[in-house]
Design goal:
single chain, 403 residues, mainly beta, Methanol Dehydrogenase, Chain A, Neuraminidase, 3 domains, five-stranded antiparallel β-sheet, four-stranded antiparallel β-sheet
Length: 403
């Protein structure tokens, strides 16, 4: 394979000089979703006008009717033939083959009901703002719905024009009412929406949701307001379930702490929803655990922290992760195998190291940087061998006078 060739896939000259502010490819890279005219909302959230460019036909089209308002959080379905997005607190789905637009939710209202996105608390405290997820086969969308009608309102002046304006938004202070959160699943073929049973206590948080390996099984993380107890709930949304009006849910994992449980994205499913990797600070340091039904096995241990889990390779039972093992101010990339105590260090340079792995874990892109050096980016195979230097930033280093 020739790794030396490079080509321009798309430039503004191909798309009527549109400003490409962000983009994402569909699964086979035959289409790209482009965001333009982006406006920030809060720390992470924004709204844009989105276009779809088809590489096969070399045609560019608006995702939806822009006169209805800008869109948020647009995302391809797993098969790449549909795009889901949020507009005016409601969820919509565009079929790219027919251009048919389906409105999934109808009750969205500014400062009252949010569908498919998050409220200010979740964006700020749990560091995410996309409140929907496609199932792996694209047949379903799980989504958050926030009722913030009882949350007290905060007002602030916005400057920039000749006269300032008042901006109002829902902002719960300590001890005040939070939004009431619900989780729903919309099935595209049946065009039906089913609630996920999270219990009767409304003064809770749902910091994460995630589809399991089975595209019918949704998992929901439920946390008390004190944030020292967390449960992992599962529900089966198969189309042939006996009761189409409700889904029974069950708890498959619980964790408690005397102080606080840190929220993470290190939930990795190995089989369905019954076997998964999870990170926890329960032994005093953040480490990886394998949960298999009622059996729990600690995979990593020691006086150091796992900082991110990249994934699990089914072919050889390898787990790839980032850790601060050698020093708290540094990060290294490692792999280990289930049932083995051996760690294989994949990063060779000191400083902060991170990686992005291919779906099969045959290759990864490695990033290295320090307080005094810019990113050094390389392509590797899974043995650690360097295949190609993608970016060495030598020009920047010379400009800064470091060499």
């Amino acid at each position: 394979m020739d790794y030396t060739k490079k080509a321009t896939l798309l430039s503004s000259s191909n798309i009527n000089d549109l400003s490409i502010e962000d983009y994402q490819f569909n699964f086979d890279e035959s289409k790209v979703l482009i965001s333009t005219e982006t406006e920030s909302i809060y720390r992470h959230s924004s709204k844009s006008n989105f276009y779809v460019y088809d590489f096969k036909t070399s045609k560019l089209k608006e995702l939806t009717n822009f006169s209805k308002g800008k869109q948020r959080l647009a995302e391809f379905s797993p098969k790449g033939d549909k795009v889901a997005f949020v507009r005016e607190n409601n969820i919509f789905i565009i079929d790219l083959n027919t251009n048919h637009e389906t409105q999934v939710t109808l009750n969205g209202k500014i400062n009252e009901v949010i569908n498919g996105a998050t409220d200010w608390v979740y964006e700020e405290e749990f560091s995410f703002n996309k409140g929907f997820q496609w199932s792996s086969d694209g047949s379903k969308i799980a989504y958050y719905s926030f009722y913030e009608g009882d949350v007290k309102e905060f007002q602030m002046q916005m400057y920039g024009d000749l006269y300032p304006s008042q901006y109002k938004f829902k902002y719960p202070k300590a001890g005040e009412d939070n939004s009431i959160v619900s989780i729903f699943v919309y099935e595209l073929n049946q065009q039906r929406t089913t609630p996920f049973d999270i219990g009767t206590d409304s003064d809770i948080y749902i910091p994460r949701i995630k589809w399991s390996k089975d595209p019918n099984i949704l998992t929901v993380q439920k946390m008390n307001r004190l944030q020292n107890n967390i449960e992992l709930l599962v529900g089966n949304f198969s189309s042939d379930r006996p009761n189409s009006h409700g889904v029974k849910t069950k708890t498959i994992y619980k964790e408690s702490s005397k102080t606080y449980i840190d929220i993470h994205d290190n939930l990795t499913f190995l089989e369905g929803a019954s076997k998964f990797l999870w990170t926890s600070e329960k032994d005093g340091y953040n480490h990886i655990y394998l949960v298999d039904g009622k059996t729990e096995t600690q995979i990593t241990s020691g006086k150091w922290e796992v900082t991110e889990v990249y994934g699990y390779n089914n072919s050889d039972n390898s787990i790839y992760f980032q850790a601060a093992k050698e020093h708290p101010t540094q990060r290294e990339v490692y792999s280990t195998k289930v049932g083995s105590n051996d760690l294989r260090k994949l990063s060779l340079k000191s400083g902060t190291n991170s990686a992005e792995f291919s779906n099969t874990f045959d290759y990864y892109i490695h990033y290295n940087t320090t307080a005094n050096t810019p990113h050094y980016i390389t392509l590797h195979d899974n043995s650690g061998k360097v295949i190609k230097v993608l970016k060495d930033n030598q020009a920047l280093i010379k400009e800064d006078g470091k060499v």
